Amino acid sequence: MEAELDTELRDASGNGAVAVHAPHLTDPLLAAVLGIGRELSVRAVLDRAVTAAVELTHATRAELTVLGREGELTDRATAGPDGPLSPGLIEQVRVTDSAVGTLRVARTADEPAFSAADARALAVLAEAAGAALGNAHRYERGHRRAEWLRATTEVTAALRTGPPAAEGFALVARRAREIPDAVMALVALPDGQDSLIVHTVDGVLSEELVGTRLGMTDSITGDVYSTGRPRSFEAVADATVRRSARTYRSLGSVIDQLGPAAFVPLGTGQRPVGVLIVAKRRGATPFDDDDIAMIAGYAGHAAMAVEFAEAQQDRQRLALFEERDRIARDLHDLVIQRLFAIGLGMQGLGRTPEGEPIAPASPGSSARSTPRSATSGAASSPCRSPRADPSACAGRSCARSPRRR
């Protein structure tokens, strides 16, 4: 590559500094390499690489394929028309000594074969594309990690205010769908010992999936909840059928439109509070290990935020109950004191000034038949009447005064 670009590396000062001598920037190959290296997105790197391959090798068509860890196709870019082509040139695209794909060019059968210069140019472009892909992956990974951290901060701050659990899980699902450009995110919560229920769905299939029950022992969601380990799949429907045909029938064919998906537990302990599922459209780029790790970290923090919000609500309810108990005790003491005062007052009303108790009136007596004092009794005595017969007072101790003569 150095010879083709006329680049000479040498020790300039003996202390590790390197001087680079490159050809003039009008060199088409160098300009293509620099243009590829400036891109920070994977898609832009792929598109620019195949375009440069067609221009520099004068090929009819160029194709760059990117493979996953297990050799599966994860991304692809092409330039030029489709049609029958003769075998052309092919170069491996490597990132840090690991093959991640291939860059190939082809011509029609009536065109001349590729030259040695074309082969060298393709090799340079493949190496530049590999380096640029590594940089783009690192940049996008850092960008996604920053987005997940912002989402974690947002969810945690929102849940600290103590919204209802339904609103909290809806926020968790919405942010989980937005960051990886997914089409759906859902939260499933345990419903007893044998099943989970789809609590919240953000995105497509909301009406179809909310309230659906998933078996704890015959579904991927139940496996993730029971084991606490995240899992990822290239297609939700295919993975569901392989796991349990009965679960697939219960969900229906609506999940056929879902593609790559990540299943992560909501929580960091052995007993998660639920499961978070994030699914992309069918045919999209699958989730890699870094994506799964970031989603799992987000789900763990979100679950702790939900638990914190619920604990805060419990503390508020406990404080309210304690305040009600205190008010009830104060009211109880006040009522007892007033009843005791009323009892003392009624007891005082039932005695004469000399302290003797007053006899209660008979039930048959009228309101006017009140007890007569000794004075009133003496006044009504027959001895008191001026016309009384003196013989009527015989033998009585009357207080009648002798009449003056």
From TrEMBL:
It comes from the Bacteria. Residues 171-307 form the GAF domain. Residues 323-353 form the Signal transduction histidine kinase subgroup 3 dimerisation and phosphoacceptor domain. Residues 359-382 have a biased composition (Low complexity). It comes from Actinokineospora soli. Residues 351-405 are annotated as: Disordered. This is GAF domain-containing protein. Pfam families: GAF_2, HisKA_3. SUPFAM superfamilies: GAF domain-like (SSF55781).
